[in-house]
Amino acid sequence: xxxxxxxxxxxxxxxxxxxxxxxxxxxxxxxxxxxxxxxxxxxxxxxxxxxxxxxxxxxxxxxxxxxxxxxxxxxxxxxxxxxxxxxxxxxxxxxxxxxxxxxxxxxxxxxxxxxxxxxxxxxxxxxx
Length: 128
Hints:
Blueprint: E1 2-6, E2 9-13, H1 15-27, E3 32-35, H2 39-45, E4 56-60, E5 64-74, H3 79-98, E6 101-113
Parallel strand pairs: 5-6
Antiparallel strand pairs: 1-2, 3-5, 4-5
């Protein structure tokens, strides 16, 4: 939790706030299919999307933050490029919104989301 004292009072930024910002920035990163709170649970619950801080762990000090992200990457994207873009997006979002110095953004790729293209099923007209 960041805590800053000014003449007018204290400012505290909870870790949950930083985690939410990081999760939203991650969701906006191209190539990220979803966040994962663990490979087993993540694969089972990744569709819900209700918990934006899922798959995000933060440590917040007085003026710095470290962030760990667990993600599922969309098939067809270069994993290293997605991870680097994710690091930059999360760092920029957290620093600009909180004023904290983000010292590291660690990305853990836990899977690849593969969607099979649905084949069109053509029905022949029924004959009576």
